[in-house]
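Weekly modeling sync, notes
Attendees: S.R. (lead), two postdocs, one rotation student

Agenda item 3: backlog of single-chain predictions. S.R. asked that every request posted to the team notebook include the full sequence so nobody has to chase files. The rotation student volunteered to paste the first one in as an example of the format we agreed on. Action items at the bottom.

Example entry:
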Amino acid sequence: MHQTTILLIEVGALLLLLGMLGRLSRRFGLSPIPLYLLAGLAFGHGGLLPLDASEEFFAVGAEIGVILLLVMLGLEYSANELVGNLRSAAPAGLIDAVLNALPGFGFALLLGWGWVAAVVLGGITWISSSGVIAKVLGDLGRVGNRETPVILSVLVIEDLAMALYLPLVTALLAGVGLVKGGIALGVAVLTVVVVLVVAIRYGHLISAALSAKDPEALLLGVFGLTLLVAGIAAKLQVSAAVGAFLVGIALSGPVAHHATQLLSPLRDLFAAVFFVFFGLVTDPRDMPPVLLPALALAVITMGTKLLTGYLAARRVGIAEPGRWRAGFALVPRGEFSIVIAGLAVAAGTVEPRLAALATAYVLITVVSGPVLARLPDLAWFKAWLRQRARANQQPQPVGVRD
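Predicted structure, as returned to the notebook:
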């Protein structure tokens, strides 16, 4: 009874603190993720006031948080939209992977952390934060902009790539060997293909089985189905997160719309718990030695993300201002980067400093991203773009042809 009382006090106090931090961050137009991570660091191992009784609660809540983040992301797309985006945005997705995974991969090798840690860090630097980016686009009123579909297409490609990357990196971290790793990847590919086929052909039947008219039944049904599929996916060595994402893809119509409204508060609650938990299990005393490497890696990969968005927008004919907006919007890393780092921490088979580096890296990019996204709207930046446009439109000398 005493332990339960302490648990309630710790959880209640920390959630109240998170609510206040979330309100504070939004007042300044920033993502609350950095403050959630800092709260976890303050009350975790090596922090100012370690909370021991509630750690198991936050561990389970963190798992649910990842699942809800991904199912909500899947609800944003229909299966047909997903396949269409995959076809049209495949070149941009390939550029994104090469430009942003290779710096992390090479950085880990440069630090002498080994090739498994290199694969993990490559994934951390590759994946942008869909949640933070969606928030930024909404806050800046850019949801209807011409470059926004380009941004979303890149994010969709990344999310699909995670369906293959997560089981592969899980196998590598477990040290199961090349053959078993290949089997895990094959199962992942087969699972993704089967679920996509079911979603395209029979998604309407799944949606019909879940009534959109009864909010309570819909919430329990969608949440239960998501947890069930996520658990089965994890059992098949795919990924609970990817399983949840595919459940969201399978739902459509009014069911998807109402499920999004009902699950949003749960997602916000458990997503905050997820980020706090990652901070709880990261010792802040490990961060100072990796702060400069994290800053260097963040500067490099913010540049590569900027280039990714710029090239992707230029490829579909977006004007110069839209190319810069697309590039800056893709800068933040967040939930998936922490998920990948969390897998490495749980495995305990890679460089221990990886968690601290990932936390510092996410903090830097998630704070810088929303700030950088505002640059194209500033007067001096617009003036610079006009000057570039005039310079590019200078008349050619007589007798010179294209």
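Discussion: group reviewed the output briefly. The two ends are 82 Å apart (CA to CA).
Action items: rotation student to repeat for the remaining queue; S.R. to check formatting next week.
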